[in-house]
Amino acid sequence: MNRRELVKTVAAHGDLDAKQVDATLRSFTEVVTAVVAKGEPVNISGFAKFAKIQRPARMGRNPGTGEAIRIKASKKARITPLKGFKDAVMTPSLAPKLARGVWSPSGGASAAKAASASKAPAKKAAPEKKAAPAKKSASAKKAVAKKG
Predict the structure, then answer these.
(1) Could you give the CA distance from residue 145 to residue 148 in angstroms, rounded to a whole number?
(2) 51 with 41: CB under 8 angstroms?
């Protein structure tokens, strides 16, 4: 599911305007990104934790030569799914139920597009080309040559 499909699905599920949902989603991502960039974690209980982590410098080994190398300190973004989300993903019966027709696992909006495309008038099929006659094998040619 991409962003556009997510906006349409949330709007349909919550009976909201798609533009409002898009603006809210955009604001949400901007706020979470800005807060985490400053080093403050963001927890959405039952869903996920967004955090910036500091990895200290450490010693490692070059796998090709076995030589000891120094790995410099770095900063990483970490998104950790929380218990409620993991439980719902691992046990689909615990997942929230969406309103009927809001989203289908077979493709969501893509399936709706395919269904509407099938209602369009069918295009004429291109005329089929006739297959070239099969060539005789080398042994069949020899048999014909011996008879003649």
Answers:
(1) 5
(2) yes
The answer to whether the CB of 22 falls within 8 A of the CB of 10 is: no
Listing DSSP states for 34-87 in one string gives HHHHTT--EEETTTEEEEEEEEPPEEEE-TTT--EEEEPPEEEEEEEE-HHHHH
pTM to 2 decimals?
0.60
Largest CA distance in the chain: 93
The three-state secondary structure class of 102 is coil
Q: Are 50 and 41 in contact (CB under 8 A)?
A: yes
Residue 103, Cβ density class (10 Å: 0-12 exposed, 13-18 middle, ≥19 buried): buried
Among 38-47, 74-83, 125-134, the minimum mean pLDDT is found in: 125-134
Closest CA to 51 of 32, 77, 70, 69: 77
